[in-house]
Amino acid sequence: MSAGEERHWKVGELARATGLTVRALHHYDDVGLLVPSERTSGNHRLYSEHDVRRLYGVIALRRLGLGLDEIAALLDDDRVGLVETVRRHLAQVERELEHQHLLRERLRRMLEALEHRVEPSAEEFIDALEAMTMIEVNVEDVLIQLSAEEVDEPPPRLAREGYRMVHLKERGGERVLPIWIGAQEGDLLAARLGEWSQNRPMSPDLTAQLLKAGGARVERVVIEGIRERTYYATVTVAAGGESHEVDARPSDALNLALRVGAPVLVAPEVIDQAGVPSGVIASRLNDPAAGPAAQGWHSLSADLVRSLYPREASIGWERYSREAFQVMTNAREEARSCGHDYVGSKHVVVGLLLEKGSVAANVLDSLGVTLERARGRLMHRSDEQIAPGFLPYGETTQKTLELALREEGTRRPNVVGAEHILLGLVRADEGALRDLGVDVERVPEEVCRARQSLARESPSGEAPHQ
Q: What distance in Å separates the CA atoms of residue 83 and residue 132, rounded to the nearest whole number?
C-alpha cells in the first residue's frame, strides 16, 4: 500500500483485528448501523478507515449501555462527534479503574492480614464482595410530571396521587437508574434531598430514630432486582454483632438511607437492564417527539411541593403539639380504612377518641361518647379501595383546624392541643357531635375544667402538651 493510500479491511480481517466476530459485523450491516463503504468485485464487504472510526463509536457507546437504535441516532447526529464519543468512553474507563482501585485496596488489606496470620473478618470479605458485585449510586433528583398548565397551578388530585421519578446516578459514571415511586414517598425523599425544614418527624425519620435508640446501624441499601418492571430492595442492618437483611420497597429504603447516611448500591444486572446514560435521559424528558409519557418532568422543589398542598401549608403545623398532630393522623387513617376519599369532621371525632388520655378524649368520655359508639353512629364503610398517600381535608375539617389555632390556651399561646381541635370542631361543624347526643354548649366548659384539673396535677402548674 503506497503512502497516502487509504487502507481497507475485508470482514474477516477486521474481525480478527478487533476481536469481534464476523457474525457481529454482519449484524451491524444488516441493521444499518455499520454499512461498509465499499464492496469488492465479488460483492464482499470492504471496510474503510472511516468505517473503523464508526465501529469504534458503536462499541464504545454499546459499552455505555445504549441500545443499537440509540447508538445509530447518536452517530448520525452531527452534534455528537468522535470527540464526544471518546470523552464518554474515557469517563467509563476511569470509572472502571476507580472501581478496580477500590477492590485492589480491599484485597491488599486482606492479604496483609493473612500474611500476618490474622484471619480477615467476615465484614472485610463482604466489603470485597461488594466491590466485586455492586455499583454504588447517589440519589440525584426526584421529579414530578406536570403539564405546562399545571406547573403554575397543579390540580390537587392528579399531582398528589401521581407518581414521582427518582434518579439514582452511578457514582463516577454516566448511567442513571430511573425508578417510579409513590407521591408521598417521593415528596419525603425530595424534602430530605433538598434539606427542607419539616414541622414533624415523618415515618422514615421515626424508623431512623428507633434504629438508633435500639443500637442498630443501617449498613447498606441495595436495589437488588427488577421483575416485571417492579424493583426490589433490601436493607442490611447491623445489631447485636450480627447483620440482618430486610426486604423493603425501594422508596422506603432510599428514604431511610438518606436519613442515616447509608450507602445505596445497585446490582450490576439491574443497572445494565434499566440504566440509561444521563445525557440520553435528559434529552428524552425534554423531547416533544418522545410522546406525552416522557414530557413535562420537573425537579421537585420546596415551593413546588407547597403548591401541591396549598391548604396543608396554610394550617401552620409547627404550632401543633405532637398529640394534636397524632389526632389528625388518626383521622386520616380512619377515613382510609373506611374507604372514604377525604377527611371529614366525623373522622376527626374518631381521631380525638383514639388519642386516649388527652384532654379532648377525656372530655368526650365525660359527655358519654365512646369510640365504639362514634364508629357505630358516624362511620359508614365503603367498598372502595383507597390508595396509600395523601387524603385531602374536607371543608369543615379545614375550618376546624383554622379555628383550632384561634382556640389556643393563654398559658401556651404557641401550642395547639387536641382540646383546641375539639373546640374548633364545635364551632366549625357541631352536627357530628350532636348526632352522638353531645350537648355542644357544655364542651368549652368541660375543656376548661379538664385543663384546670391537669394544671393542678402538673408540677409546673400548667396543663401539659406532648
A: 31
Note the CATH number of domain 311-457. 1.10.1780.10
Does residue 232 contact residue 244 with C-beta atoms inside 8 Å? no
Residue range 258-285: mean pLDDT, rounded = 81
- Structurally, what CATH architecture does the domain formed by 134-302 represent? Roll (3.10)
pLDDT tens for each residue of 165-195 = 999 998 877 789 999 898 888 888 888 887 6
Domain residue spans of the chain: 8-76, 134-302, 311-457
Residue 218 per-residue DSSP state: E
Which of helix, strand or coil describes residue 31? coil
The pTM of the whole model exceeds 0.85: no
Burial 288-305 (b: 16+ CB within 10 A, else e): eeeeeebbbbeebeeebb
Residue 336 pLDDT more than 60? yes
Side chain identity at 314, as an amino acid letter? Answer: S
Query: Contact, 422 vs 376, CB < 8 A?
Result: no
Output the pLDDT for position 284: 62
3-state secondary structure of 227: strand
Dump pLDDT digits (tens) for 407-451: 654 444 457 888 999 998 988 877 888 888 888 889 888 888 888
Angle between the N-to-C axes of helices 122-133 and 82-115, in degrees from 0 to 180, rounded to the nearest 10: 160
Closest of 257, 242, 265 to residue 132, by C-alpha:
265
Q: At what angle do helices 250-260 and 203-213 cross, to 10 degrees?
A: 60
Nearest to 259 by CA among 193, 200, 178, 322: 193
Q: State the pLDDT at residue 191.
A: 82
In CATH, the number for domain 8-76 is: 1.10.1660.10
| Chain position carrying cell 430486610 | 246
Q: Report the C-alpha gap between 384 and 406 in whole angstroms.
A: 36
Number of residues that this document lists for the chain: 466
Q: Is the pLDDT of residue 90 over 80?
A: no
Most confident of 2-11, 91-100, 107-116, 386-395: 107-116
- Per-residue pLDDT of 283-331, as tens digits, reads 666 555 544 444 567 777 665 665 565 555 555 555 677 788 888 888 8
Extract the C-alpha cell encoding 48: 474503510
Question: Which residues, other chains included, contact 150 with Cβ-Cβ below 8 Å and sequence gap of 6+?
Answer: 158, 159, 296
- Based on the number of CB atoms within 10 Å of its own CB, is 17 exposed (0-12), middle (13-18) or buried (19 or more)? exposed
- Amino acid (1-letter code) at residue 422: L
Determine contact, residues 456/464, Cβ cutoff 8 Å. no
C-alpha span between 130 and 107 (Å, rounded):
12
